[in-house]
Amino acid sequence: MPDMMMTTIELAVIALARHDPLSSVKPSWHSALFLSDQRQHLPLANPRLEALRRYAVLFRLQRCEVAEVEHERLRRAGYNPQQIRMIENLVAPSRCERDGAPPSAASAHHHLESTIRLV
Questions:
Q1: Which helix (H) or strand (E) element contains residue 91?
Q2: HEC string for 36-76
Q3: How far apart are CA 98 and CA 89, in angstroms?
Q4: Are 60 and 89 in contact (CB under 8 A)?
Q5: Residue 105: what pLDDT?
Q6: 2 Cβ partners below 8 Å, 6+ apart?
């Protein structure tokens, strides 16, 4: 599989992250202390997928002002710059001015929409 492609499970994580609140990326003790009446979000068991979910939530909600530490976390999880641009385009396609999405971003977005219908 080419490095810039996303797997079906990664696309499913992105689809689910489109509905996760900002509190889902906070430490669980934070939610327990301040939001005890709200649903707690547990991190995904797979660290790579959790890094993806976290980045997708933060990028969607923070309007492209995601901290460099989050970019680095995603890179350390194994995502390359082309994949990160694709993730950003899938999560919030109209949020940022970019140099252009990877060539397969349109087909990936269509696949993401199909995945959302399955989830």
A1: helix 81-91
A2: CCCCCCCCCCCHHHHHHHHHHHHHHHCCCCCCHHHHHHHHH
A3: 9
A4: no
A5: 46
A6: none
Alpha carbons 59 and 55: distance in angstroms, whole number:
6
Amino acid at 37: D
Residues 18-38: pLDDT tens digits? 888 888 887 655 445 555 555
Distance CA 26, CA 30 (A): 6
Question: From its phi and psi, is residue 100 left (phi > 0), alpha (psi between -120 and 50) or beta?
Answer: left
Which tokens belong to 41? Answer: 């979000």
Q: How many Å apart are CA 54 and CA 87, to the nearest integer?
A: 12
Phi, psi of 96 (to 5 degrees): -130, 150
Instruction: Enter the pTM of the model.
Output: 0.69
Q: CA–CA separation, 91 vs 58, rounded Å?
A: 10
